[in-house]
Amino acid sequence: MDGHERFTPYSRINQNGPREAGWRTTATNMNLNRDYLKADAPEMQAWLKLFNQWDPDLFIDCHTSDGADYQYPVTMEYDGFQHPLMSQWLSRTFVPELTELWKLQVFPCSIM
Fold this sequence. Notes:
The chain is mostly helical. The chain folds into two domains: 1-55, no CATH class; 70-112, no CATH class. It has two helices and two strands. It has helices at residues 42-54, 84-103, and strands at residues 75-76, 110-111. Strands 1-2 form a two-stranded parallel sheet. Helix 2 (84-103) links the parallel strand 1 and strand 2 (110-111).
């Protein structure tokens, strides 16, 4: 049974909510969020193969906080140092447009 199905009020007792949560590990006790370097899990091996074949210019990882108590339901962070043109586009186009959507309350988020 994967972590999502192991849903109990005792999974994350050190966090301020949610009332119930799943585990961070797979059925074989592997945390896929920590396996991207070693790639021990078959899920991560398949993901890395796909990612390397695809080779995207921009990748957005929609990730849950699993109940961590942030001010906003959605936060965003980006690494703009990988490529100067991507950094310029993120800073000058993507973040300002996302900020405008936030001001219009299309979705609540913060830009980090």
